[in-house]
Amino acid sequence: MDAEHHSEEDLHIMELQAPGSAPLHAGVSASGLVYLRGDLHPLGSATALIKAAREHVPYAALGAVNVLFPADWLRGECLHDADRLRVIAAMERLVRGAAA
Predict the structure, then answer these.
(1) What percent of the chain clears pLDDT 90, i.e. is strictly above it?
(2) Residue 80 to residue 59: CA distance in whole angstroms
(3) I need a labelling partner for 43 at 20 to 30 A (CA). Which of 11, 37, 53, 85 fits?
(4) Which helix (H) or strand (E) segment is 25 a member of?
(5) Is 33 exposed, middle or buried (0-12, 13-18, 19+ CB in 10 A)?
(6) What is the DSSP string of 14-73?
(7) Residue 6 pLDDT > 60
(8) What phi and psi, each to the nearest 5 degrees, are found at residue 19?
(9) Beta 11-16 vs 34-37: how paired, if at all?
(10) C-alpha closest to that of 23 among 14, 35, 34
């Protein structure tokens, strides 16, 4: 699957599942960027998609409402929210460990 942006790059999509929870999708680009779910954005996935498109941030649309964004961009969008920053950091570690 290719990330949807101007300089397309291969994106390895993975499904992560913790016991008793629904599966989560994440991705790692060929250059090592981690992509996480848009619902981690403080204003939700739909707003994140609009903002990312306006800012020319790369993203991968897996479906109409399931969109992955670079973890670094999401982290920058959540600087005021320590809880979201912890979740993003934990998910990024999990994805990097699964991709290794």
Answers:
(1) 52
(2) 22
(3) 11
(4) strand 24-29
(5) middle
(6) EEE--TTS--EEEEEETT--EEEEGGGSTT-HHHHHHHHHHHT--BEESSSS-EEEEHHH
(7) no
(8) -55, 130
(9) unpaired
(10) 14
